[in-house]
Design brief:
mainly alpha, Heme Oxygenase, Chain A, 16 helices
Length: 346
């Protein structure tokens, strides 16, 4: 096991540009940090599906995580790059507002109840989990895991940004959840490492960001939403709501994913990531909704609507993601940008 960890690449390479914005950005990042003046960006369609925008924003955010091979770490706080990121974030936030309906305010409800009502009222989408459990073939399950690798190989990191921005019960609850996500300090139990085992069992490359080249804008938008909320203190309420929605809707799907993977021949090691989330997220649901979000809303009531908006963003993007996969498979096409992926990996 130690050898596997030693061989893991902790950074990724810059991918192929997806438009004029990423072409310009990657040309700048290939040089030492310097001042540059990018032109204003205007999306050419729905923001969540704009390949150029989402990849550019993902790249800007990744500099705050593990960076890229050949890109100077000092780019992280370069004023010109931050100005570009701010412009892209403005466009992205406007697009999120158009795509995600604003939930009604709590109106005196306990936050736990308001979150539960929001989850119950949300359209769960086209039944992706059930399809993976009962009908998906191995290549389709591998596609699903490929999409999810963009987040799961850094699992918990975006939400951890909130810890120094909280206090009291909300902070203690978030730390409790994150401690489990990071395996209680044990490398082999970290959820990101469990997911790597799932990827290896499916003959996928478990290197960090290995499939950035292959995933579409919507998959990047899911990660970008978490980074947007995590890297801005003003969005701390939305970040907590996003995490709560994830924990409140995770146990049953993960149970179903595990059944599907076992049906396709997955062993205990391959399924451990999903099995772990069945138990962990059932416990985290109560902590996230009551202690974390409830505690936060009690001390910062003015940000209670942000908690619900963050939850709505997570729920809506998950539905759109499920629709994308199911629509692709229904039409006999890949849900990835690169149709040759499966042949390359094997």
């Amino acid at each position: 096991m130690a050898q596997v960890f030693d061989e893991w690449k902790s950074t990724m390479k810059l991918p192929t540009p997806r438009g004029p914005l990423t072409t310009l950005l990657f040309e700048e990042l290939a040089n030492p940090p310097h001042r540059f003046d990018p032109p204003p960006f205007s999306p050419r369609g729905p923001v969540l599906y704009d390949e150029d925008l989402q990849l550019a924003l993902f790249t800007c955010y990744e500099l705050h995580y593990r960076g890229f091979e050949g890109v100077d770490d000092e780019w992280e706080w370069n004023p010109s790059l931050l100005a570009l990121r701010q412009d892209l974030e403005r466009v992205f936030e406007e697009g999120l507002r158009r795509a995600v309906p604003t939930p009604p305010p709590p109106a005196g409800k306990p936050m736990r109840r308001a979150l539960a009502d929001l989850v119950a009222a949300t359209d769960g989408g086209p039944g992706l989990a059930a399809f993976l459990a009962r009908k998906a073939d191995l290549d389709q399950f591998r596609e699903f895991v490929t999409h999810r690798s963009i987040y799961h190989l850094k699992e918990a990191d975006p939400h951890t940004w909130a810890i120094p921005r909280l206090h009291g019960a909300a902070k203690a609850a978030l730390v409790e959840i994150q401690t489990d996500e990071y395996g209680g300090g044990r490398l082999d139990r970290m959820h990101s490492e469990l997911f790597r085992a799932t990827m290896r069992a499916l003959d996928l490359d478990d290197s960090y960001g290995a499939y950035l080249e292959h995933v579409p804008a919507l998959t990047l938008a899911i990660g970008n939403t978490m980074s947007l909320f995590g890297l801005h203190r003003r969005r701390r309420g939305a970040l907590l709501g996003h995490l709560a929605a994830f924990e409140m809707t995770s146990s049953l799907p993960n149970l179903t994913y595990a059944r599907g993977l076992r049906r396709l021949g997955g062993d205990a090691a391959a399924c451990r990531f999903y099995d772990e989330h069945v138990q962990a997220d059932a416990a985290h649901e109560q902590i996230a909704a009551h202690d974390m979000c409830g505690g936060f809303a009690a001390t910062e009531p003015g940000l209670a609507p942000d908690v619900l908006y963050g939850a709505a963003c997570g729920l809506t993007l998950d539905r759109l993601f499920a629709e994308h996969l199911m629509d692709s498979w229904r039409h006999g096409t890949t849900s990835l940008r690169r149709a040759e992926l499966m042949a390359v990996v094997r």
